[in-house]
Every structure is written in C-alpha cells, then in structure tokens.
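re: ur question from yesterday

yeah so i grabbed the chain u mentioned. its 263 aa long if i counted rite. heres the sequnce exactly as i have it in my notes:
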Amino acid sequence: MRRILLACAGLALALAPAAGQGRDRYVEPPPVVVSPDLSAPWVLQLSRAPAGAARTAASRVAPGVRVGVAPDPVYRQRVLRQRAAPPAARAAAPVRTAAVAAGAGRQAAAGLDPRFLPQVVDYAGPHAAGTLVVDTRQRFLYHVLPGGKARRYGVGVGKPGFEWAGTHKVSQKREWPDWRPPAAMIAREKKKGNILPAHMKGGPANPLGARALYLGSTLYRIHGTNAPWTIGQAVSSGCIRMRNEDVIELYNTVPVGAKVVVI
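ran it thru and got these structure tokens back, copy pasting raw so excuse formatting
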C-alpha cells in the first residue's frame, strides 16, 4: 500500500509542470523589439521604390545567367514552331495568347496597370509579321504576328522634350548590357545636382535591365529596367523601356535585322 501511495505522489509531481505549461499557453508572449540599428537599413532599402513596387523575379537573375523561359510558354513555343515551319505554313492560324488574368493581381499590387501586361491582340496595321511597332502615345509595343495578330507589351517612353519617331532595324542585341550615359545626359543631370557614372557594368542595378535591343546607329534602345513600376509612363531620355520579363521574351523571339517603327 505504501508503494502505491508513493507511486501516485510521484505521478502527481510529474504532471504538475505539464499542467502549468498548459496554463501558459493562454498567456500572450511579450512583443519582439528590434533594435533600430538592425531595422533601419532594411526600411531604407524598401523606401527606394514606391509602396508595393516589388522587384520582379527576372530582375533578380544574376548577370551571365541565360534566361530562356518566357512568361507565356504557349506563345514562345508557337512562335518557335512557326519559325521552323515552311513559309506557306507560317501564314496559318494566328498565335493564341495564354490568359494574363492570373498575374494581373500581383502586377496591380506592384503599381502596374494590368493593361500593360503582355497579351496577344488583334492587329490591322500595315506592317508585316516580325515588325516591332512602338506607339509612344498609348505606351504600347506591338510585335506583329501572322494572321492579323500582335503580341502587345506595355512600355515606358521618352519624357516631354525627348519624344521621337522613325524607322530603324535591330542592329545588335545584348544580355545585361553595360550603360555608358551620353555626354549630354551627364552634363544635363549634373546641372540638376545628379552625378552620373561614365560607365556602369551590366547587372540588376543597371538602369538598362536584363536585355537591350539597339536601334540602328542611334543611341536609342529597347531595354529592360530596374524600375518596373514606371512602365506606362513618359520617363526616359528617348529609349523604350520594358519590364525585364518582357524584354527577355522579346530578346528571345526577335532577330537582329528586325524592323522597328516608332510612331
């Protein structure tokens, strides 16, 4: 009997802490306090872009890494099949677009109007398939496709005083291009108190973004950007800027020599 009493007493002592722990579950823990010395640098980084303007996945790709997957794989595979087909077959059915609604919510949260997302639209213009048409007023770039269709992208265009129009060809293409601001731009920005570098190596921080298509012998390019929230605005010094995802897709589907019409 004594052994039974001792065993019960030991069991009660063993259960006592567990019961106390059960009561502690309903006690609200104290708040976590982060030292300003630790949090300030992160807050500073977040404040460099407008609220909600997140960096895209393509913006974080390291220089030298070849990105071959377009945001719309259905479109890319269809274009590649058309290129490999005989000329008679290329004039067949138009390329169909994949739905863009899935990513529209994320882009809207990042400060981008969903209408500037890539999509295939009807095209009744005079330009042949393969031509790039930039509508600077509507802020759209059209990659003309067979069958009365075009792949449409939102773009950033030249700010007031830097508008231009003309016809050129893609003279060269570059991955993660270096940036060498023209002397006139350096002088202009210096008057505003902004000091531009004479040369900036390509990379995620470079304003030319992930890819660049050079237009003839001009200083203008169709290029990516490290500020995707500016797409749809008149913000550049004449270049046509695109989201990094979009310029990568264009880079992979448009050859050197392609005709470019800026209107």
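noticed a couple things. Residues 82-262 form a domain with the L,D-transpeptidase catalytic domain-like fold (CATH 2.40.440.10). also The radius of gyration is 28 Å.
anyway ttyl
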